[in-house]
Design goal:
Layout (H helix, E strand, L loop, with lengths): L1 E4 L6 E10 L1 H15 L5 E13 L1 H14 L3 E7 L3 H10 L6 E5 L4 H9 L5
Parallel strand pairs: 2-3, 3-4, 4-5
Antiparallel strand pairs: 1-2
Helix pairs in contact: 1-2
Length: 122
């Protein structure tokens, strides 16, 4: 389940993820992106993953649609998790063009906020 949580930065969407992510979760996220950042505004994503179990196939398809549609809007992605598999995935995704990604441990939530608030692609 994906839950929107209060953000400490106007240019950042903050979410918590626990268990499975569904198509409805991603549709809800896309709606927030569209409402807050329209078609041209860049944004960051601050995601805390607790016991992430992946996403359903339909959710993965929905995520791909969102990513393609919003690709140029992503700026930074901070992923907070104690899962080593998630950390490795984030390290791999750091090669994505124009999106800066960084993994943080659960104990480093404030560090993640500081990183996400700093200048573009620090």
């Amino acid at each position: 389940m994906l839950t929107l949580v209060p953000s400490k930065d106007m240019e950042t969407i903050a979410v918590e993820i626990e268990g499975h992510v569904t198509e409805d979760d991603l549709t809800k996220l896309d709606k927030v992106i569209q409402e807050k950042f329209s078609e041209k505004g860049e944004f960051n994503l601050y995601a805390i993953l607790y016991h992430f179990e992946g996403a359903s196939f339909k959710a993965l398809l929905e995520e791909m649609k969102i990513d393609v549609k919003r690709w140029s809007q992503y700026n930074k992605l901070a992923v907070i998790s104690d899962d080593e598999k998630v950390e490795k995935l984030v390290e791999t995704s750091d090669y994505l063009p124009s999106i800066k990604t960084k993994h943080f441990e659960i104990t480093q939530m404030e560090d993640a906020w500081e990183w996400i608030k700093t200048g573009r692609n620090d």
